[in-house]
Amino acid sequence: MNEARIVHLVSEDVSVIIVQDDDSLPVILHWGVRLPVEDETLRAFAAAEERPGLEDVSDLPYRASVLPEHSAGWFGRPGVEVQRDGAAWSPRFSIRAVALDGAEMAAGELRTHTGAVTFFAHDAFTEIELELEIDLQSSGLLRTRTRIRNASSSPAPLEVGSVLVSLPIPVRANEALDFTGRWAHERIPQRHPIVHGLHVRESRRGRTGLDATMLVAAGTPGFGSDDGEVWVGHVGFSGNHEHALERTDSALAFRGGELLLPGEVRLRSGEEYVTPWVFGSYGVGLDAASHRFHDFLRARSRSSRRPRPVTLNVWEAVYFDHDEATISALATEASQLGVERFVLDDGWFRGRRDDRAGLGDWTPDPAAWPGGLRPLAEHVRGLGMEFGLWVEPEMINEDSDLARAHPDWILRARPELPALFRFQQVLDLTNPEAYAHILATLDDLIRDVGISYLKWDHNRDLIDAGHPGTGRPAVHEQTTAVYRMLDELRRRHPDLEIESCASGGGRVDLGILERTDRIHPSDSHDPIDRFHILRWTGLLVPPEMLGSHVASAVSSVTGRTHSLPYRCAVAFLGHFGIEWDIRSLAADEREQLAWWVSVHRRFRRLIQDGRPVGGGELDPSGPAMRGIVAADGAAALYTIVTPPVAADTRARVRFSGLDDKRDYRVTVSAPESLGPPWQVPDWIRDAPGIDADDDAGVAFSGAVLRLVGLEFPTFHPERAAIVRLTAAG
Ligand code: GLA
Predict the structure, then answer these.
(1) Where in the sequence is the signal peptide annotated (predicted)?
(2) Which of 318, 354, 459, 556 most suits a substitution to test ligand 1, by most atoms within 8 Å of the C-beta?
(3) Cα separation of 595 and 336, whole Å?
(4) Of 235, 277, 681, 720, which residue is most buried, by most CB within 10 angstroms?
């Protein structure tokens, strides 16, 4: 242990203690709450935690490294699964060097650091070199990435089966929360005890997936939005991947990585494979863990640069029925409501009269748009709005000029074409010619039409996605090709914003979100469903990146009918927009919608910069809350929704995130009211002990609001209110 390197990665409230002893791969001894420890204490802790490896054979279980090795006596999933010609399947890595943000660290050194530590290792027998980065960001977000190089001169390639990192979690975290879903019902929570074995959530869909868990949380019993210790894992990749919790006789860990198909990554001499980033976020309560992901995205996304423009997307207004006069009229109406970005959705390009044809032919359909898209784009800009356009660049319809000209540009694992899915196939972007063609087409469109926003869709799972010709799996390369294309378009168009959509929320992960600025969380705008989709997707994605549209009273997906204030209140805490044929609005509806747009514009900076919080979502019989608290704690907005079925007539809502030391004035936009905008309803004003002076609101202590909460009436099902809190004095 004397020669051990000890790295204490720290952020303000998180510690990660890593020990690298002898020449073995590093072990994380602690990932969790920040420890105020001196060097000597750290050394003593590391020594006390020491456990023998295989050489000292003992009954004590091997302590798993960040990439646990079977050769060292680990019997769970190996960190690195490889083989070369049926051998080299059980590597044992030796550390060659360790660097802290580039500066070499000597054996025996102990360092406390914020940033990255990189371990350089090799295995002389299997002739593999490995680089493992562990990075603790100043926000407390942990991320790791591995690079594997075939250092052998053998002509036999090194096949990489999987690289799955292991982030240890204390076994007292014995409850898991992950998510499932389907089209229009993304992010349905499932909570369950953690038992011995592997709980694995795979995506083999070639996209993140509508059913993708997005993240896996393990927490102490009963953990919630603002209480209980929670460890969250996430794999930042949009192709096949796996999230797992692995509980063995000695440990619990989050395991995550890309899911590689058979033979998908075969490294020839000198070639390397780099894994996606795998993230870990610790916090007291889910919200604290979630804020670290938000910080990461906010530092990268173009959406944090300027106020989020209120958007109108025409999809649910016109579907494929494109007619220049109708859509121009919609634009005019939209601008009168205060809309700032107008997005033309699917149906604008050659041959696209329904979803059976046209994908790949990215020029305006002459029947619908005889003069091209420029006249509409100019009309939109003339009204003071930005112009955005829907595209689905990774896809192709067999009924398209592109498929007729290049039938060999379609991914397939077998001689025949894969099964159709929404009548479409996947364009082979790993083919340099197809890639160059699509990149040039998009680039030209953006310049010619003056597009400042792309809604980038991806409407099918990848079935049998092989390279045409060889049939070898192509999901990995296809995914990285899409990333390259997005990076290149953003490089060429520094102000272009991109929305990630995949049949709704089928592509939500940090891999795609590092290169896009907003997501379309779901095709369901039904506020009952949408509230929960926004809340749970919001654990990973900050509110200003969550597309949040008000649609028609009768939901196109569920057929349920909801009032306008309810729909608006649920959509309020996000990147607000409209997806509805607003030409048919009655005068009072138009007035109400314009009011919501203007109020949203007034408060959007708070939504965009504040800290999201939630509560009550796991109890379907009580009210649920989504809120956003200003970074300085001086103001907050909460959406409260009553449940569809409630046995109780009143229920308390606690306002998490508030500053206990401040007093707050509470005002409420009552569900069915249009004005005055922020009222104090009777049920608050008349509550005993309340100092209700005027309509400026009732003053409460932050501690009372946070810890005890206010009672809300729950006898009206499916109502929503926006509660506004402002620090008094
Ligand atoms: C997907 C999207 C929708 C819409 C349609 C267009 O389903 O999720 O918002 O863009 O495609 O075909």
Answers:
(1) none
(2) 459
(3) 12
(4) 235
- The predicted pLDDT at position 3 comes to 87
Q: Which amino acid is at 319?
A: Y
Q: Which residues contact ligand 1 via a Cβ below 6 A?
A: 315, 345-346, 355, 390, 457, 459, 501, 503-504, 520, 523
Q: What residue spans of 422-523 are helical by DSSP H?
A: 432-445, 475-492, 510-513
Q: Please state the atom number of ligand 1 nearest to the C-alpha of residue 579.
A: 9
In whole angstroms, give the CA distance from residue 449 to residue 386: 11
Q: State the pLDDT at residue 333.
A: 98
Looking at 2.60.40.1180, 3.30.420.40, 2.40.160.20, 3.30.930.10, the CATH number of the domain 613-727 comes to 2.60.40.1180
Q: Which of 122, 133, 61, 58 is nearest to 92 (CA)?
A: 122
CA of 353 to the centre of ligand 1 (A): 14
What residue spans define the domains of the chain?
A: 5-298, 302-604, 613-727
In which element (H, E) is residue 298 found? Answer: helix 286-298
Using the mean position of ligand 1's atoms as its centre, give its distance from the Cα of residue 457 in Å: 7
Can you give the pLDDT at residue 282? 98
**Of the residues 348, 390, 397, 457, which should be mutated to test ligand 1's pocket, given the most ligand atoms within 8 Å of the CB?**
457
Atom of ligand 1 lying closest to residue 502 CA: 8
Model's pTM, two decimal places?
0.96
CATH class of 5-298: mainly beta
CA diameter of the chain: 83
| Ligand 1 centroid, distance to 371 Cα (angstroms) | 25
Among the options 523, 526, 659, 663, which is catalytic? 523
Q: Cα-atom radius of gyration of the chain, to the nearest Å?
A: 27
- What is the predicted pLDDT for the residue at 676? 47
Residue 494 CB contacts under 8 Å (≥ 6 apart), including other chains: none
Closest Cα to residue 45, out of 65, 15, 75, 79?
15
Tokens of 572: 């309020």
The crossing angle, in degrees rounded to 10, of helices 324-337 and 374-382 is 20
Cα–Cα distance between 491 and 325 in angstroms, integer? 35
Instruction: Check: CB of residue 204 under 8 Å from CB of residue 225.
Output: no
Q: Are the beta carbons of 552 and 524 closer than 8 angstroms?
A: no
The pLDDT tens digits for 123-166 are 999 999 999 999 999 999 999 999 999 999 999 999 999 999 99
Answer yes or no: are the C-beta atoms of 495 and 222 closer than 8 Å.
Answer: no
- Where the chain has pLDDT below 70, the residues are 1-2, 52-61, 670-697
Q: Report strand pairing: 547-551 vs 575-579.
A: parallel
Rounded CA separation 685/690 (Å): 7
The rounded distance, in Å, linking the Cα atoms of 209 and 509 is 10
User: If you take atom 11 of ligand 1, which residue's CA is the nearest one?
Assistant: 503
Task: Give the amino acid at 729.
Answer: G
Please indicate whether residue 101 is annotated as part of the active site: no
CA atoms of 361 and 34, how far apart (whole Å)? 55
CB-based contacts of 111-119 (< 8 A; 24+ apart in sequence) = 111/6, 111/7, 111/8, 112/8, 112/10, 112/39, 113/7, 113/8, 113/9, 113/10, 114/9, 114/10, 114/11, 114/138, 115/9, 117/7, 117/9, 117/18, 117/26, 119/20, 119/25, 119/26, 119/95
Beta bridge partners of 261: none
Task: Decide if 523 is catalytic.
Answer: yes
Assigned superfamily of 302-604: Aldolase class I (3.20.20.70)
Q: What percentage of residues in the chain have a pLDDT greater than 90?
A: 84
Task: Let me know: does 650 contact 668? Beta carbons within 8 Å.
Answer: no
What angle separates helix 564-571 from helix 587-609, to the nearest 10 degrees? 20
Residues near 635 by Cβ (< 8 Å), separated by ≥ 6?
606, 629, 724, 725, 726, 727
Give the separation between CA 572 and CA 563, rounded to whole angstroms. Answer: 14
The answer to whether 191 and 164 are in contact (CB under 8 A) is no
Closest listed residue to residue 478, CA positions, set 491, 459, 465, 494: 465
